[in-house]
């Protein structure tokens, strides 16, 4: 049964992605703002998250939203635990401000999905470009943060198996310090239901915990990331203790 439900959900996402992508491309052709294009994309992402509940029984529970800034012009860098594709869809669906992902440019080649994200005001980079890629992140990240868009990054860089910890890289905290905005750590237990690189998903509840804002004024990027890492990993153990008993 989980296999059949996963197939149905995948087909649903593939089919619904097409009209939403065409809508984004069409409104862009007629000069729609980046916020309008983002709202269309967010609607599809929320539909995908909701349909994961309908078809596969994968639901979510969020706590800590009161830690997020309420000023519409206040930028933050969200630093999110990365266990599966689920949180890449979930974060825009639940966050009250537009988000800008930092992602590898190869995703732009994916039919429809890649065309959609290529039409949004986000940051795509060439990982092989080294320091030039980070300069692009800083330049575009500062611009987006100044207009109230929140930049979202996965500090571990890739999806990490349940109960494990990757290497936390400090690029995100360097950006936040240089832009003069706080960081917000986020723990997500998505691998309980949607394991890394797994096609078959399982019913259950994904817990999302939004941590307190951390001021970046006068901070060093490496010790700031160490604080973020400590909070996220401690919170992951609290939310999903079963995964850490091994």
From TrEMBL:
<dbReference type="GO" id="GO:0016746">
    <property type="term" value="F:acyltransferase activity"/>
</dbReference>
<keyword id="KW-1133">Transmembrane helix</keyword>
<dbReference type="Pfam" id="PF01553">
    <property type="entry name" value="Acyltransferase"/>
</dbReference>
<comment type="pathway">
    <text>Lipid metabolism.</text>
</comment>
<protein>
    <submittedName>
        <fullName>1-acyl-sn-glycerol-3-phosphate acyltransferase</fullName>
    </submittedName>
</protein>
<keyword id="KW-0012">Acyltransferase</keyword>
<keyword id="KW-0472">Membrane</keyword>
<dbReference type="InterPro" id="IPR002123">
    <property type="entry name" value="Plipid/glycerol_acylTrfase"/>
</dbReference>
<feature type="domain" description="Phospholipid/glycerol acyltransferase">
    <location>
        <begin position="76"/>
        <end position="191"/>
    </location>
</feature>
<keyword id="KW-0812">Transmembrane</keyword>
<feature type="transmembrane region" description="Helical">
    <location>
        <begin position="6"/>
        <end position="30"/>
    </location>
</feature>
<keyword id="KW-0808">Transferase</keyword>
